[in-house]
Design a protein that fits this description.
- By secondary structure, the protein is α+β, with helices and mostly antiparallel strands.
- It has 14 helices and eleven strands.
- It has three domains: about 1-115, Alpha-Beta Plaits (2-Layer Sandwich), CATH 3.30.70; about 130-135 and about 295-460, Trigger factor, domain 2; about 155-260, Roll (Chitinase A, domain 3).
- The protein has helices at about 20-40, 50-80, 140-150, 200-210, 220-225, 230-235, 265-275, 280-315, 325-335, 345-365, 375-390, 400-410, 415-435, 445-460, and strands spanning about 1-5, 10-20, 85-90, 110-115, 130-135, 155-160, 170-175, 190-195, 215-220, 250-260, 435-445.
- The strands form three sheets. Strands 6, 7, 8, 9 and 10 form a five-stranded antiparallel sheet that branches. Strands 1-2-4-3 form a four-stranded antiparallel sheet, sandwiched between helices.
- α8 (about 280-315) runs parallel beside α14, α11 (about 375-390) packs across α12 and α11 crosses α13 (about 415-435).
- The longest helix has about 35 residues, at about 280-315.
């Protein structure tokens, strides 16, 4: 048995494995004997089947499995012993033909192409300066949050007339022609619900405020839905291709007007939002809201810092990958997803993720990042709690969280995904120690201006 390694360049190599007759002969003879003892063939007692017949029946498959087992075993053993870091998996060479005659019991030579992982040298230091924003709140932010919570937990009532932008209007929408009559084949009495406060057109917004049940309005349908093609399609129940053919003028008949009566600031509301007896009065409720908002904006600021850290790591480590090899590997191992027509486009996303992963692995190795069971358990619990909050459970009971978490763990890939989250968080925490981070205080609005500028920079 012999393994040879030939490096073509920094990112590609050829590895060859030679399996000789003596490497596999004894083992397949043993397998033939074992099969002979168990074989039930008409006309022969167990153990008396001629060996020639055994070889004729199973010889090729036994040889194939044994040779492939030895090839794989020694190939990966060589890579491990020689610290050769590869990307993807070895692929049958397209330049050198392997020698694989399974009809005879001779020698075999397999040639494989390898995609080599690029060398990663960390290029971050205290000279790299970033900002951790410290968001300042004012009473307006607290009042707005309380107002939103009261609306979210309020009661929906039907009204005869709309009075504010917050009243939702149920319209029966009909597409009309220049004469104001139903357009032949056009949309007819499609029921839609609109909220004036989200409409950008001042003219349409003004049309919707002050209307009464039964009123009819001539409305520019594109202005009503803010020129959002997807919203138009979903609201009017039409195909995407039909949007371009729509007449802009629709008649909207007011079917219903709905208004949310905000929840009262009482103990029932406090308990609903904060949990039973968490606060006793309005003052304590406001203080808790301010505390929660503060924690939320600290998390938002940290998320923004980590986004900038990710960009820094990407810009400082422009790794080159064995692109052609990886595209071929993706196309051959996942043909249901990648093909000759889309692999170039999809590979762009895959390569970004791979570069990020390689840099993370290097940082984890150099900074001795370790993941414990406790890390995984805590992250899993927090992830499940956040998931429940997104479904409207503001204060999920710990027993409920544990129950849902147990169900999450039934997914085989769940804990691996949680582990990746832990590693990513720990790596970024280490990076924060390696660079210079200065604090900067600013108001909420200014903070989101900074976020917008950053996102525009990244999208260019």
């Amino acid at each position: 048995m012999n393994v040879t390694f030939e490096k073509k360049d920094d990112l590609n190599a050829l590895i060859s494995v030679v399996i000789k007759n003596e490497d596999y002969l004894e083992n397949i003879k043993k397998q033939f004997k074992d099969y002979r003892k168990k074989a039930k063939i008409p006309g022969f007692r167990p153990g008396t089947v001629p060996m020639g017949m055994v070889k004729q029946m199973v010889g090729k498959s036994v040889l194939f499995e044994e040779v492939n087992r030895l090839t794989s075993e020694h190939l990966y053993q060589y890579l491990q012993e020689n610290n050769i870091d590869i990307l993807g998996q070895p692929m049958t060479s397209v330049e050198k033909d392997s020698i694989t005659d399974f009809e005879n019991y001779g020698d075999f030579t397999f040639h494989f192409d390898l995609g080599l992982a690029p060398a990663v040298e960390l290029n971050i230091s205290i000279k790299d300066k970033l900002t951790r924003f410290e968001i300042e709140l004012d009473k307006k932010e607290v009042d707005t949050e309380i107002k939103n919570l009261r609306r979210q937990n309020g009661k929906l009532e039907t009204m005869d007339k709309s009075e504010t932008e917050n009243d939702s209007i149920v319209l029966k929408m009909t597409e009309v022609d220049k004469k104001g009559e139903h357009k032949d084949g056009g949309v007819f009495e499609q029921e839609v619900t609109v909220l004036p406060e989200v409409v950008k057109s001042k003219k349409v917004k003004k049309q919707l405020v002050g209307v009464s049940t039964g009123d009819e309005l001539d409305i520019n349908v594109f202005d009503l839905f803010n020129d959002n093609e997807m919203v138009i399609v979903q609201s009017l129940g039409i195909e995407k291709e039909a949007v371009a053919e729509l007449n802009k003028t629709f008649k909207g008949s007011v079917k219903e007007i709905r208004r949310v009566q905000p929840a009262e600031l009482n103990q029932e509301f406090f308990d609903l939002v904060m949990g039973p007896d968490a606060v006793k009065n309005e003052k304590e409720f406001e203080a808790k809201i301010e505390e929660n908002l503060g924690a939320y904006y600290i998390a938002e600021a940290e998320k923004q810092l980590e986004a900038e850290l990710n960009l820094l790591l990407e810009e400082k480590h422009p790794l080159t990958l064995p692109d052609d090899f990886l595209k071929r590997w993706l196309s051959e191992t996942k043909p249901e997803t990648y093909n000759s027509e889309n692999v170039d486009e999809l590979y762009g996303t895959e390569s970004v993720v791979l570069r990020k992963q390689l840099v993370r692995e290097k940082i984890a190795e150099e900074q001795n990042v370790e993941v414990t069971d406790e890390d995984i358990n805590q992250t899993s619990f927090a992830y499940t709690a956040q998931m429940l909050r997104q479904y409207g459970l503001n204060n999920p009971d710990p027993a409920m969280i544990q129950n849902f978490e147990a169900k999450n763990r039934e997914d085989k890939g769940y804990l691996m995904r949680i582990r990746d989250v832990v590693v990513d968080k720990k790596v970024l925490d280490k990076v924060k120690e390696l660079v210079t981070i200065k604090g900067k205080k600013l108001h909420v609005d200014k903070f989101y201006d900074e976020v917008k500028k950053f996102n525009e920079k990244v999208s260019k």
